[in-house]
Amino acid sequence: MEILDGKKISNQIKEEITVEVEQMKERGEKVPHLAAVLVGNDGASLTYVGSKVRSCKKIGFESTLIHLPEETTEEDLLKQVHQLNNDPAIDGYIVQLPLPKHIDEEKVLMAVDPDKDVDGFHPTNFGKMALDMETFISATPFGIMELLKRYNVDTEGKHTVVIGRSHIVGRPISILMSQKGKPGNSTVTLAHSRTKNLKELTLQADIVISALGVPKFLKDDMVKDGVTVIDVGITRVADDTKEKGYYITGDVDFESVSKKASFITPVPGGVGPMTIAMLLKNTLLARERHNG
Ligand SMILES: Nc1nc(=O)c2c([nH]1)NC[C@@H]1CN(c3ccc(C(=O)N[C@@H](CCC(=O)O)C(=O)O)cc3)C=[N+]21
């Protein structure tokens, strides 16, 4: 069994980006500038956005955090989005999800300039991704593909079962895994909450990608020997004995499933840190495009 060490690989990627940023500086070019918009005070969102900003500092990017109150109106948020679209100093930005209930997420994501959409959530970028065109690929699926690539996990002709059909993980990763390329060329089954024979499917899977958000959902009796398991679920479980008041767990019952797996991602330290690294990678690509 080999651990797909997202923490380690994400640090490698960040080091690679740091070198590129230094070269940009030497050429007298502007360095990448990432902005993040956060509405409200969701604990997990604060952690992620904080971690993105810290990473920017570490690798030499400029960063801007726009923290708006929970009561921000949709209109005001859209104004902020247009401001970012029109600000030549900003290469790319993200609007952290989830947004408060009174704001129409789709409307906001549609307003983001596709050329600055380093999350790859805009329909233009999602469409390009689905059509094998060069574009910003959403950070989480991009991170999973990069992890498989760097560990040389063989996906060619293998059966991949994706659990979860979200727009930001399940749907795009099902497309990427089926595309031509390495990694890729996989036969994909996209399972979700209405799937009836899930266990039957996962037992056939060479690769299981779980993006469900249900702690310890995937058990060892649901997978075959030698399976590759990618755990995208990150759930905070309240626990007073922990310093932070919670612990983090994935969709996978790691202890039992890892005994059968040939490759497996841990939580924390797997897909999460890769997501941040690939967001930075997309921002670097945005800057390179703007530099021409
Ligand atoms: N516009 C937008 N883009 C996103 O990419 C986006 C988003 N909204 N909303 C929420 C999800 C989730 N997400 C994570 C990023 C890093 C970790 C991460 O670094 N996790 C650490 C643990 C961090 C912790 O302590 O909670 C780990 O798995 O090791 C997790 C999850 C990005 N997302």
Description:
- The chain folds into two domains: 28-112, 3-Layer(aba) Sandwich (Rossmann fold), CATH 3.40.50; 139-272, NAD(P)-binding Rossmann-like Domain (Rossmann fold, 3-Layer(aba) Sandwich), CATH 3.40.50.720.
- The protein has ten helices and eleven strands.
- It has helices spanning 6-26, 43-59, 74-86, 105-111, 123-130, 139-150, 170-178, 198-202, 254-257, 271-291, and strands at 2-3, 33-39, 62-68, 92-95, 159-163, 187-191, 207-210, 228-231, 235-238, 246-249, 263-264.
- The chain has a six-stranded parallel sheet. It has a three-stranded parallel sheet with strand order 3-2-4, sandwiched between helices. It has a two-stranded antiparallel sheet with strand order 9-10.
- The longest helix is centred in the N-terminal third of the chain and has 21 residues, at 6-26.
Give a nutshell description of this structure.
This protein has 292 residues and is an alpha/beta fold.
> Overall mean pLDDT score?
97
Stretches where pLDDT is under 50 for at least 5 consecutive residues are: none
Elements, N to C (H/E) = EHEHEHEHHHEHEHEEEEHEH
Our Rg estimate from Cα atoms comes to 19 Å
CATH superfamily of the largest domain: NAD(P)-binding Rossmann-like Domain
Label the overall shape: globular
Domain Tetrahydrofolate dehydrogenase/cyclohydrolase catalytic: 4-119
Domain Tetrahydrofolate dehydrogenase/cyclohydrolase NAD(P)-binding: 138-290
GO cellular component, one term: cytosol
Subunit structure: Homodimer.
